[in-house]
Design a protein that fits this description.
This protein is an alpha+beta fold. The termini are far apart.
C-alpha cells in the first residue's frame, strides 16, 4: 500500500497549527500561527478569527506539498475540549466561542454543588464534574445570567464543530468531542435526556453524533482558498487530549499519556467507563468503544511563566535553560512548598476558587529555591491525579510525556522521582496533531493506522532513590497543606 499523506489541522486555545504527515515519513512539514489578541483572550475566541488562522496554516502546508509534488489525501481536524458556541436559527454565531478557560459561571456551579445528589448523578452519568468549565454548566449559567442570548439560541456548537461546518457545510460532532461537554451519557454514548430536560434543550439542537472517522467533502469555495481539490475528505474533528493519547500509541489499556504544558493532563484508555465513586477524575470517550479515564489540572507552565515574569525575566529559551540548570544544584530538602493553584483547581478537587502560593518560606531562600518549588508543586498535583487513576484502572505499563516539561531534563527527572516510575519522551513535538493525522489516514483507507502506531522513544528517565525519598516526604507535607487550605 502507498504511504498516504494527510494534512492535520489543529485549532488550540492559543494557536492554529497544521502538519503534513505520513506514517513512513512522520511529520513532513508544519506551520503554526498564534491567534492575535483580537481573536483570542483565553476565555473566549472569535470564531471567524479562528477559522481565518486555520485557513492560513492549512494553506501554508498545502503550498509546501505542491512544491514537493505531494498529494494530500485528506484533512484531519483537531480542536479543544469543553468549548461552547451558540448559534441562531441560521446557524450563525451569537457572539464568541467560550473556551474551557471561561469560568464566569464558577459561583453558579459552586452553589449547584451544594446538592450532592445532583453532583453524584451527573458525574456518574457523564463522567464530567458539575463545574463551570463544562459547556453544559456554562449553558445552565447563561440561562440565568444572559436570557436575552439563550432566548435567541437555536443550536449549540463548539470551536471544532464550527471549523468543520465552515469547511463542509455539515453539522456533526464526534462522540469524542461531545463526551467533554457534560451533555453526553458516557455509558450509552448518546445525549442524556434527563440532563437535556434540566437544561431546557432538545437533542435536535446539537450536531449529529458520529464516530471519529466520519468525513465530509470540503466545499469548493473553501478548497479554492487553500489550494486543495474540491471534495477532499475532512474528518469531523476530535479533541486534542484524545488525539494526544492516540499519538503515543495509547489505544490499548497499558499506556498512559501525560502532558504538562500550559495546563496538565493524564490519560489512559479502557474498554469500559472507569469512574471513581468520589468525583475527582474524569471519563470521556476515545473511539472504537474505548473510554478515556483521565485528569486535568489548570496549573502547568502558566505557573512557571508567572514566576519568571514576576522576577523580571523575558520568556525565552535562555531564561528557561538558566533556571532549569539552576534546579539541578538544589537538593530539595528544606525548600518552600508551592501550592500550584494560581488559576483555580480542576482535578482532583474541582475548586474553581482555590488559590495557590508559597508556604514555609524563609529569609535564606532565593529565587531558584522558589523555582524548584514551582516545578515540584505542579507535579505533586499531577501525582494526586495519577494515584486516583491507578486506583480505578490499574498500573499502566508505560507513561509517555509531552508538553513544555520535556524541554527540561531536571523537571523530567523530578517527574520520574515523584511518580516513582520510569517516564519516557517520544520524538514527536506535535502529539495531538499527529493523532488527528492518524484518524484522517484510517478514515481514507490507511488500515490499522490508529491501532498499530507506535512512536519512537527519544529519552527515558528512571526514578533515583535519593530523589524518591526527598519527594515522598515533601509530598506528604503537600497533602497535609492541600487538606488544610482546601
Amino acid at each position: 500500500m502507498n504511504d498516504l499523506i494527510v494534512a492535520s489541522l489543529e485549532v488550540s486555545t492559543v494557536t492554529a497549527k497544521c502538519i503534513l504527515f505520513s506514517v513512513r515519513a512522520g511529520v513532513i512539514a508544519e506551520a503554526s500561527k498564534r491567534y492575535g489578541s483580537e481573536v483570542a483572550d483565553g476565555p473566549s475566541q472569535d470564531p471567524h478569527g479562528v477559522l481565518a488562522c486555520a485557513l492560513d496554516v492549512l494553506r501554508a502546508v498545502v503550498q509546501f506539498a505542491h512544491l514537493k509534488n505531494l498529494t494530500i489525501e485528506a484533512v484531519g481536524l483537531v480542536g479543544i475540549w469543553h468549548s461552547l458556541l451558540l448559534l441562531d436559527g441560521g446557524r450563525r454565531p451569537l457572539g464568541k466561542i467560550r473556551t474551557w478557560v471561561d469560568l464566569a459561571g464558577a459561583d453558579h456551579a459552586l452553589a449547584l454543588r451544594n446538592d450532592q445528589g445532583l453532583v453524584h448523578s451527573v458525574y456518574h452519568k457523564t463522567g464530567c464534574m458539575l463545574h463551570a468549565m463544562y459547556p453544559a454548566w456554562k449553558w445552565h449559567h447563561l440561562r440565568q445570567s444572559a436570557p436575552q442570548v439563550t432566548g435567541r439560541t437555536t443550536y449549540l456548537s463548539s470551536q471544532t464543530e464550527f471549523v468543520f461546518e465552515s469547511f463542509t457545510g455539515q453539522a456533526a460532532v464526534s462522540r469524542t468531542l461531545a463526551s467533554g461537554t457534560g451533555f453526553l451519557n458516557i455509558h450509552d454514548l448518546d445525549w442524556d435526556q434527563e440532563i437535556l430536560d434540566m437544561m431546557g434543550l432538545g437533542s435536535d439542537q446539537f450536531g449529529r453524533l458520529v464516530e471519529a472517522f466520519h468525513t465530509a467533502p470540503m466545499k469548493s469555495e473553501m478548497a479554492q482558498l487553500v489550494g486543495l481539490p474540491s471534495g477532499i475528505p475532512v474528518t469531523v474533528g476530535c479533541a486534542d487530549g484524545a488525539m494526544n493519547q492516540l499519538a503515543v500509541g495509547g489505544l490499548g489499556t497499558e499506556v498512559m499519556s501525560m502532558s504538562v504544558g500550559t495546563s496538565g493532563a493524564l490519560r489512559v484508555a479502557h474498554l469500559e467507563p472507569r469512574i471513581p465513586d468520589q468525583p475527582s477524575t474524569w471519563c470521556y470517550y476515545l473511539l472504537e468503544g474505548r473510554r478515556l479515564a483521565g485528569a486535568a489540572i489548570n496549573n502547568g507552565t502558566n505557573c512557571v511563566d508567572w514566576f519568571l515574569t514576576r522576577h523580571g525575566n523575558q520568556l525565552n529559551s535562555d531564561t528557561y535553560d538558566r533556571y532549569s540548570n539552576a534546579v539541578q544544584e538544589i537538593d530539595g530538602i528544606g525548600v518552600p512548598m508551592f501550592m500550584p493553584f494560581l488559576y483555580g483547581e480542576r482535578c482532583p478537587g474541582w475548586a474553581e476558587h482555590r488559590t495557590g502560593g508559597f508556604i514555609d518560606v524563609k529569609a535564606a531562600h532565593g529565587e531558584y529555591d522558589l523555582y524548584y518549588s514551582v516545578l515540584e508543586g505542579i507535579l505533586f498535583n499531577m501525582r494526586q491525579c495519577y494515584d486516583i487513576l491507578v486506583d480505578v484502572g490499574g498500573l499502566p505499563r508505560q507513561v509517555l510525556v509531552s508538553g513544555g516539561i520535556v524541554n527540561s531534563a531536571p523537571w523530567m527527572q523530578m517527574a520520574a522521582d515523584i511518580l516513582r516510575r520510569e517516564v519516557m519522551v517520544t520524538g514527536s513535538t506535535n502529539d495531538s496533531t499527529v493523532g488527528g493525522a492518524l484518524v484522517a489516514l484510517e478514515a481514507v483507507g490507511g488500515h490499522e493506522q490508529v491501532r498499530g502506531y507506535r512512536p519512537p522513544i527519544a529519552r527515558r528517565f528512571e526514578p533515583e532513590a535519593d530523589g524518591v525519598a526527598i519527594h515522598d516526604s515533601r509530598y506528604a507535607r503537600y497533602l497535609e497543606l492541600y487538606g488544610l487550605l482546601g
